[in-house]
Amino acid sequence: MTTKIFLIRHAEAEGNLFRVAHGQYDSTITPRGYQQLAYLRERFANEQIDAVYGSDLTRTWATASAVYVPKGLAFQPLPLLREIRLGVWEQKTWGEILRMDRQMYIDFNKRPDLWCVEGAETFGQVRERMLSGIRQIAAAHPGGTVAATSHGAALRTLLGTLQGMSLEEIGTTGHGDNTAVSLLEIEGEAIRVVFRDDASHLPASASTFGRQSWHKSDAATEPGLWFQPAGGGLEACLDDEVVGKVAMALEPGRVRITAYEILPAMRGRGYGVQLLGQAVQYARSQDRETLVLNCSQALAGYFAQYGFTHTAGDEMVMDLRRVIRDIPQRGQ
Fold first, then answer.
1. pLDDT > 70 in the chain, percent
2. What was the pLDDT predicted at 220?
3. Label partner for 231 (CA 20 to 30 A): which of 99, 174, 244, 282?
C-alpha cells in the first residue's frame, strides 16, 4: 500500500523578499507570494488530496490554504516540519551575517555538516525531526495522498537524506524556489523521492529565484545590506559604504516611515526593498499593525508592489496583520 506525500515549499515570505534570515521567526507572505499561490492552487486543482499538513508557522499554513481551502479540508499543523532554528542569526539581514561570519554563511548552504551557530539547531537535528514528521504523516494516511508545506532548508535536508546523501553531500545540491513541489512515495519503511523542487507551475514573472542570484553562486552568497543606527534612523551599508537610510516614528497604532533613501547609483539592484524590511520588522517589534508613508506619485507604483495602498493625498498604508487573504485566481 503506497502513500503519496506532496511536499511544498512555502510561497515567497518577508524573509525571502527583504533578505532577512527567518528560520522560526513567524513572518508572513508577500504580494508576490499570493500570486504564486494562485498558480499553486491551479496545479493541485485536479489532484485528489486526502489531508493537508504543514509547519505551524504563518507562511506555511498560508501556503497550504491554496490546497486545503478549495478542497474543503482542514489544515493540520505539525511543528516537526518547521524551518531550521537559526539562533542568533534570526532576523539579521543576510548582508550582516555575511559581514560577521562569511565562512559560516557559506557553510549554511555548502557544508551543512559544519554549520554551527549559537542557539541554533544542527542540520542533523533538522534531518531527524523532518524524517519523524514524514513517517508520522504516512502512518496516519496509509494508501492516501497528502500535501505538506514546509521550508527551504528543512526540505533540502530531508530530500537529500531520502536520496541517500550525507549532510556534506546535500550541500552540493540545488535549492527549491518558493512553492516548489516534491513528491514522495512511501511503502512500509521505504521512502522514494519521485521528483523534487519542481516549480514548473510558476511563470518567470512570479518566480522568486528569477529575481535573485545567491542560489546560482558557487558560494551561495550575494551582496547584501547591513544596518547601523545613525541620526535617529538606520544607515544602510554595503560593505563599508553607506548607500541609504531609513527612519521610522511611532504613531498611535502604526509606524510612519519618515525617511527612505537609497543612493541613485544603488537603485535598480534590489537593495531598496531591504530598507522596507527594516521598517516592517520595527513595526512588528512595537506591536503596530500598520506602516504609513507619504510619497510622490512617481514612487506610488514602487510601494504599491509591496502591498501599500493609497488612503488620501500622497499617503500610503501597508496592513501588517497576519491574515490569510482569499487566494486569487490565476491572473488576478
1. 97
2. 78
3. 99
Using an 8 Å Cβ cutoff, are 22 and 14 in contact? yes
Q: What is the pTM of this model?
A: 0.94
CA-based nearest residue to 276, from 251, 249, 246, 296:
246
Residue 268 identity (one-letter amino acid): G
Average the pLDDT over 177-202 and give the result: 97
> 3-state SS of the chain?
CCEEEEEEECCCEHHHHHCECCCCCCCCECHHHHHHHHHHHHHCCCCCCCEEEECCCHHHHHHHHHHHCCCCCCEEECHHHCCCCEHHHCCCEHHHHHHHCHHHHHHHHHCCCCCCCCCECCHHHHHHHHHHHHHHHHHHCCCCEEEEEECHHHHHHHHHHHCCCCHHHHCCCCCCCCCCEEEEEEECCEEEEEEEEECCCCCHHHCCHHHCCHHHCCCCCCCCCEEEEECCEEEEEECCEEEEEEEEEEECCEEEEEEEEECHHHCCCCCHHHHHHHHHHHHHHCCCCEEEEECCHHHHHHHHCCCCEECCCCEEEEECCCCCCCCCCCCC
Do 77 and 61 form a contact (C-beta atoms < 8 A)?
yes
* Contact yes or no for 21/166 (Cβ under 8 A): no
For residue 270 the three cell numbers come to 534590489
What mean pLDDT is predicted for residues 103-109? 95
**Whole-angstrom Cα distance, residue 34 to residue 79?**
23
